[in-house]
Fold these 4 entries.
Entry 1:
Amino acid sequence: MVGAQWGDEGKGKVVDYYTRASDAVVRYQGGNNAGHTLVVRGQKKVLHLIPSGILHRRKTCFIGNGVVIDPVVLFGEIEDLKAEGHLKTPRQLRISDRAHIIFDYHRILDAAQEKSHGKGAIGTTGRGIGPAYADKTARIGIRVAEFIDPVKLRERLDAILPVRHEMLEKIYGTRCPGVSEVVREYQPLAEKLIPYVEDTGATLSKMISSGKRILFEGAQGTMLDIDQGTYPYVTSSSTVAGGACTGSGVGPTAIDSVIGVTKAYTTRVGAGPFPTELPEGDPVGEHLSSTGAEFGATTGRRRRCGWLDMVVLRHSVRVNGLTGIVITKLDVLRGLKELKVAVAYKLDGKKIDAPPASPIDLGRCEPVYRTFKGFDEETRHARTLRQLPKNARAYVEAMQELSGVPAILVSVGPDRDESILLGDPFCCGRKPARG
């Protein structure tokens, strides 16, 4: 289950919904820069690291090797879930011994680097995600297996922190914590982590071999992918479907279907090109922002809002190999007289059908819009496409036809059950839904 836009598509609700048909849910990339919001029986819950399926009993949740873990945030979520009657045993949450750890010095470096960029800042969440992934790639990161071993942890810190000290204090003029300070802060968390740790890749492979249903939960969105997104305005991990394999230790032949979650319009947080963005003060943009509660679950920042971008969605279909889409926040469009969809771009007078690689070129693209009639009727009680308002149904059908991928679920409200179920994500076909 991947985001088909710039993140914030509503994956949390969708994963929570489909967990009922799953045996396990796996988070395979990103860190606590993600915020997955669930609304169950009117109660709102935001998760940043632990898979959204954790609210279901008798389901196993995994944090894979591709995730970077902030132990402080992790145990904050664990304690909150326990206080609410969830996560009664560590066996329900399994954490890869190969996942990397985020330390204070990663957050300090993140903030210092973002500040130094000035007007060219990327707009990171400041959670230390990028520096942790940079350390992983540079082979100076610390993995869970070393984090929970006191001797190995100190040995690794002795080797790593002098390098961080040079960078933070001499280049950025910011204090770097010492080895003893880091050990003193994190050792208690390391000890608490031990019951949750195992070789999750091996466990998942056994579950798949025995016929279990596994749901892989992506974070962020396709257009924030380090390779396929609007680089450099991207996250530091692989957000596309291929990341589910590299980030969990499961081979690609084990994946049966790939579902892309897309809003019925488009949003984006932070800097970077956004062709269909509506200008500040635009009444439609204000409607989408206020009605859709478009504020980041992690940062609280207001999301930039715009019309649905089919060029982006088709790009997501291609790079992820999508076999189905989930359409979220259809209800937010209620009250708009007309709905626009970008079906192509114009760049230097030429019509193009795919996002250009250069962010400068993408920023110069002019959307080619197709206009649809809006609707005023309520959608939240619909449980079939036929129960939707006529114009809302036509919009959903157009999304399927323009993307070339069938919808397997349409979300018509924020609550878990305010959804129109159209297909099984574990064996969805490619024929657009009509019923």
Entry 2:
Amino acid sequence: MTLEEFFARHRRVAVAFSGGVDSAYLLGEALAHGAACTAYFVRTPFQPAVELRDAEETAAILGAELRVLPLDVLADPQVAANPADRCYHCKRRIFAAIAAAAGAEGYDTLLDGTNASDDAGDRPGMRALAELAVLSPLRLCGVTKDQVRRGARAMGLPVWDKPSYACLATRIPTGTPIAAADLERVERGENILMDMGFRDFRLRLRAGGLLQLRQEDMAAAQARWPELQRRLGADFPHLTIDHIPRPGREN
């Protein structure tokens, strides 16, 4: 099945929209194939402000309707406790919120941007998608991550080369309860790293602070180590550095 065939069958859809390249490309394809659609961004303490800005910019470029739904996922004890299956509980809350809002606007088909390169065994949130009957057209149609990036670039979307993003909750070790203040610390630090020109990284709350970077960025980070310590020291006084393990699961 092609995306054209998928959208010929599904003419009215709600798109779970994260601000990343997968859901951006999916939204663009839905619009290109004439589907009536609205994008839904769920604003939780796990998403930094930059993700919402990217979502708003992308929706504006595509001329898409965007709904922003606030949701306090930390009000759910099963999420705040940060168990190994936290992602499942969080996804359940997020997609249930989208389904309720979309249903009120007449949408009965909910889509997400999971693509054919994603490993279902490595993403516990996929169980929530299955339980809530969320469809993943990119995965169903065999569209890979490379194809998504090429397609998004052809659409003129600035997020076409945006690194894959894992939410702020993944910066806190599994089993450590999640506090809003800790998420805010991580967001402040990661904003500083972006301001310094780094793009693909994780700033984790482990042993006083662990900065993980791509192997190719390690030399630049080491050369700027005094600046990193100075700018991040208030929130991460014992910062260490390592490369992002690949392959590997978040958290």
Entry 3:
Amino acid sequence: MKAIGLKFGLGLLIVGLLQTAALAWMVYDRVSLLQTGTEIVLKTVPVDPRSLFRGHYVILNYEVSTLDLDGLDGGNTFRRGDKIDVFVRPDDAGNWTPVKVSTATGVPEVLDGTVRLRGKVRYCRRSKTQKKLCSEVAVRYGAEKYFVYKERALELERSRNKRRLRIILAVSDDGQAAVKGIEDNGRRIYNEPLF
């Protein structure tokens, strides 16, 4: 009977250690991204969010969330759910704009002065002349929701709707993105804490 209790206790200890290690890895991964990721700045565009069940947050829709593929280098044979690499470069105003897209397979060739954002195709608008090709894709990068208390969310939504809001993202070498800061009308109003 003692042996069963010992095995059960040892099993619980191992499960607890594994859960703690998983949580520690998630925290480390996020902190590492915020500390070492390349900072890029994206302009937001208005969108009307509301969820009574998920708490208060601001939905962030970036100018690079919808891409006109006719004006970009790269492929245009995407389908919904495909992984996509979007290469962005800063313009004269400091906003990062897309210059190339690529299917997210293998190790992509990164252009000088660009940063790779890894995303997932939400939908593809087909070309009118060539039905197998996309003329436009909508992309989700994983940094589209910013959770914040209610009053602050409403303030950020107003700024976003007036097109004054810009989001500073930290981007890792493999294209993962996380919100690192927020600018309102050119002034940095928020920095994401590491812990």
Entry 4:
Amino acid sequence: MIIMTSAKYFRPLYVELINISENKIILMKKPFCLILSFIFCYTFSFSQLRLALVGGGHTATVNETNDLPNWNDLKNKYSARPGAHFGFIADLQLGLKSKFYFQPGIVFHNKGRKFANSYDTAVFNYFSIDQKQFINYVDAPLNLVYKIPVKGKTKFFIGGGPYLSFIYNGLEKTETYLKTGTVTTDENTDLPVGNSAGKYKTLDYGVNATVGIEFRKIFIAANFSRGLSDFYQANYTGSFKHQVIGATLGIFLGKPIALEPEIKDKDKDGITD
């Protein structure tokens, strides 16, 4: 991410594949799966279920704070990374007449940022440095959404909730433009992953919000998400949190599945138990 090179603040990185031990994955997934199991079992007894394919574009940034002496001069050199997201969400109505819906999902997200700066060739042997810190995640949002009928089957909706984020892969690349006219390229293809200094964390989490319009089987939404944990631990005092702002197009697949409560009549006398 960021190191003390000639540019002082950025370390090249490329995540090709994250190898996580099976035991760690199981430990990390158990609480998450238990929560999802409870919510799904509770909801399936009296709701409607729909599955939607979602995708869209966004801009991603990293909110960084640190105690480095000349950080105020360099932080404006960072800019947003344009990216995309795609995946699936479920739409579970919380009651046959409820306006509240639970929307869990699995969505692939591009995150990260860019850096560009010019330098005095009288002091340095290069005149500019361009860097890319692109990290990709699989996000699992758990949103509660409120839908308001507008006209016919058109609905306005607003909602939000927490999300879990699992690192997938990424690219961090540094291009140094020398005053001789040549360009040097530096990539790191062996990103350290873990919970110690100089490593990226496999699990991130945060909050997200959504607002939009639903037209029968199609919906359009604006989205915002903000990380609450540091996805990177530097070898200096600092904080690194993801932020994403974008738009999403969703298409519901097939017809809603009615999940009405089962009527129990063990003695078959026509009267419910």
